[in-house]
Amino acid sequence: MKLSLPTLALILTLLSSCSKYENFAGYEKSNDALSTSVTLVSSDTHRSMEAELFEMINNYRVSIGLNEMEFESTTYYYAGIHTNYMIEKGITSHAKFGERAENISKRTGAEFVAENVARNYDTLEDAFDAWLDSPGHRKNIEGDYTHSAISIKLNSNGDMYFTQLFYR
């Protein structure tokens, strides 16, 4: 039986979220129609923290015999939007993941999209180690992906929120 992109994304999402305070593994189905008029305004480069964590993940992948993933600006755009959403709500969440995955697929030709999220880690290393300690997050980090982007933003208290999107 062949599963659709949204179904595969849902299955992977249910296994992939992280917070040092909670292990939220939910998926919130959205009834919002996909916006076809989204204007992509994104950066072709990450900020320093994002680039550092991205490099950590790629170095790890290479150390276990996997390919490096390429930074991709469309996924960076959607990761940033989702990180802002989590900060606004004060939660770790995969809300509207299906919509993000579909938009990324439409704009990049992605066949499969996955997501890791986290919040409230004091350092990039803490977040990276927590993702590796979580089977679902590790599966995404070690997955058959070619492209990725990470958004890391701070809330008004200085707490870090993370969204990493992967695709192939």
Structure explained in plain terms:
The structure is a single chain. With 168 residues, the protein is α+β, with helices and mostly antiparallel strands. The chain has one domain (43-167): Pathogenesis-related Protein p14a. It has six helices and four strands, in the order H-H-E-H-H-E-H-H-E-E. It has helices spanning 5-14, 48-63, 73-89, 97-108, 124-133, 135-141, and strands at residues 70-71, 113-119, 147-154, 160-167. A four-stranded mixed beta sheet has the order 1-3-4-2, sandwiched between helices. The longest helix has 17 residues, at 73-89. The radius of gyration is 15 Å and the shape is globular. Mean pLDDT is 81; it is low at 5-43. It comes from Maribacter hydrothermalis. This is SCP domain-containing protein. Residues 55-166 form the SCP domain.
Outline of the structure:
By secondary structure, the protein is an alpha+beta fold.
Which key features would you list for this structure?
168 residues; CAP_sf; SCP domain-containing protein; alpha+beta; Pathogenesis-related Protein p14a; CAP_dom; 15% strand
Low-confidence stretches: 5-43
Quickly name the level 1 CATH class: Alpha Beta
CATH 4th-level superfamily:
CAP
> Beta-strand percentage?
5-15%
Q: How would you spell out the order of helices and strands?
A: HHEHHEHHEE
Structural class by secondary-structure content: alpha+beta
Strands of the largest sheet, in order across it? Answer: 1-3-4-2
CATH topology: Pathogenesis-related Protein p14a
Domain unit count: 1
